[in-house]
Amino acid sequence: MKITRQKHAKKHLGFFRNNFGVREPYQILLDGTFCQAALRGRIQLREQLPRYLMGETQLCTTRCVLKELETLGKDLYGAKLIAQKCQVRNCPHFKNAVSGSECLLSMVEEGNPHHYFVATQWVSASLLMLTVHHLMQSERCHLFSSVAKVSQITH
Description:
Rossmann fold
């Protein structure tokens, strides 16, 4: 990892560690688009994310994300396999599945009590998170080609 990228990641993590109590192991909520981008970029998430975040990580997803990947069919089969290897977190709508972005948004509402990172490629999901006041406490992971980038969600 380049020095400037490492410094930026360290700066963002330090901010969240000091102000919001984010601690290791970092819990990263993955959605289908992030898994698909990792597959296309041939990124080993279990190896690369701990190295990038300079600490222990837990890769997590929700039942709604898995259900969404299942319904999208063969095109996202590889992303579904990646998501199935993650820990599955219980979401508030386990009976009536919603879209992956709505589910991840609901998981980090109300102050993000579990200190989740949200790993998504959807710009619209990131913009949704910007509109919710309490989500200043969540971070977003984004993949650019084969490089992960942590960005802070601010107004």
